[in-house]
Amino acid sequence: MKNYLLALLLATIIAIFFSIVAVITTERRPSSQEFPLPQEPSPVSYPVPLYKAAEKITLSELINISKTHNITLYLPTKMPGNIKLVSIYYKPPVVLLSYSDREAPDYRYDNVTIEISIWPSAVPSFGELNLSVKNVTDSRVFSINGARGVLIEHAPWGDPELQKLYGPSPLAFFWIEGHYYIISASPPITGAQLLEIIGSLRPLKG
Amino acid sequence: MLYNILGEKRMEGKERKIKLTLFFSLFTAVLCTISPLLAQASRLYVGYFYFGPPGGNAPWGVYSRILTINPAIPTYYAHLQWVTIMLSYDRYYWLQTGYYKDGTKNNPVFYWEVFDSSQKISYKLSIGPTTGATYSYTIVHAQKTDPKLWDFLIRDSSGQTIFNKEISADPYVPIDLQAFVETTTSYINIGGTHFSYLSYYNGQSWLLWNRHAAYVDPPYWLDQVSHYEFKAGGGGY
To answer: Fewer CB near the last or first residue (10 Å), C or N of chain A?
Structure first.
């Protein structure tokens, strides 16, 4: 009985100790996702990620959407290695296609992501695009297979976790037939490989 | 020694009890430790996305009137109300303006921020909105020769400009609009939240949002007054 009470007392002391530790850590040590202190250079806010609001749709549903609204969407026909289309997120006006060679909980952890705006968008001229990359050593204008846009070789990630995980990596934004696309890749995919993927884009057909 | 004194079966029972007690105490203690950390690991949001059906025009600006509330904020937590233009969801690039308050402040302050391929700038103004007053927050494409330029504007209820700044963003094309309340803990009570006249700029004129997608994290609630107006509350416990 005495030993039982002793054990109970010991357990209570341990519980109190952990509770005190919990209070101290909660009060004094914010987690990395918490609001950064004012003197830190990191952003104040983090807007709502798409995976919280978008619905996942199938490829055939995407085909139906493009048919219903008479939009020609271009999807890649070639990907490096075993990378393939694993999921499609849809929250108008955004379609997000996630390509991966592994299990990924959502698009943030895939190999290649393509975002498409289903709104028509005015296509800038070469002159405007060249002006936009003027004095930017990391960017260049390209035109491949009807796609015209800008490649940024080493673009950072807004999500600190992904920035730490991947580091700066290739990103391209471009227009095809009046629609705006952003394609993003995580290492080891290079800028040249990203341009090859863009070169393989073909109209999505049912 | 105990084993010898109390006998095998009795001791086995006692040991089991002691082990179980220790296990549950430790389990409770660990839960006590991690539960607040788990609770604060993610941010909470209440508000609207613009829901843009195909066939519309790309939104080259966002506008909202936002009533200023001033809830109590625990140390190291924050409350923000803002409008945002998303430039990329995958890369997580955006333009944003609104007001915020953290646990170190008595009153909210205005801020704007840009996160794109070349920079992450978060700029807090030394001034802030008056509690109970409504201000308008605007982000609109500058429509200049350099396509990367965007204008940020904050105006008071009389229309007087409090803040106006031109910022470059790369990439510069908007893909979505958001208007949200953001908190870093549910202990913040957002009662009184009111966004109104949510509008987008189609490149020629300002139009009220005609469709929206609502999003709300519990324990907060959202009153969807219309496509271009919402009220929100809850939290504080």
So the answer is: N
